[in-house]
Amino acid sequence: xxxxxxxxxxxxxxxxxxxxxxxxxxxxxxxxxxxxxxxxxxxxxxxxxxxxxxxxxxxxxxxxxxxxxxxxxxxxxxxxxxxxxxxxxxxxxxxxxxxxxxxxxxxxxxxxxxxxxxxxxxxxxxxxxxxxxxxxxxxxxxxxxxxxxxxxxxxx
Length: 156
What we know:
By secondary structure, the chain is an all-alpha fold. It is built from four helices and no strands. Helix 1 (about 1-30) runs antiparallel to helix 2.
């Protein structure tokens, strides 16, 4: 960023020296032309003020771009760390899309919340799947866990 500012200063100096060379060259070739009286001439302090104002504008634009890129990089880093944490917790990495990457604390809190919700959903799914698998009952209406095995072997 400092290099850019120095390069712009160098470019401004080169433009000023080039302008003065071109003006003196044009005056030498065309002495019959008159310089219009309404042409604005800037003092050195005015030029310095204009240049400093433009440099400040460019500097603020560069700083804003830098902050934006830094934020994007921090989010990428948090996303990678979250994917690693999901792997360590033996959770699907696709859950990383549900996390909040605003800052580290919010990311950790959302990771804990997603893990708890996922585990609860898994438990509920297992419970639903096993709910219909009650052991068969014998002729008296009592549960008979061995009836399935006997039935598979052709025994009664």
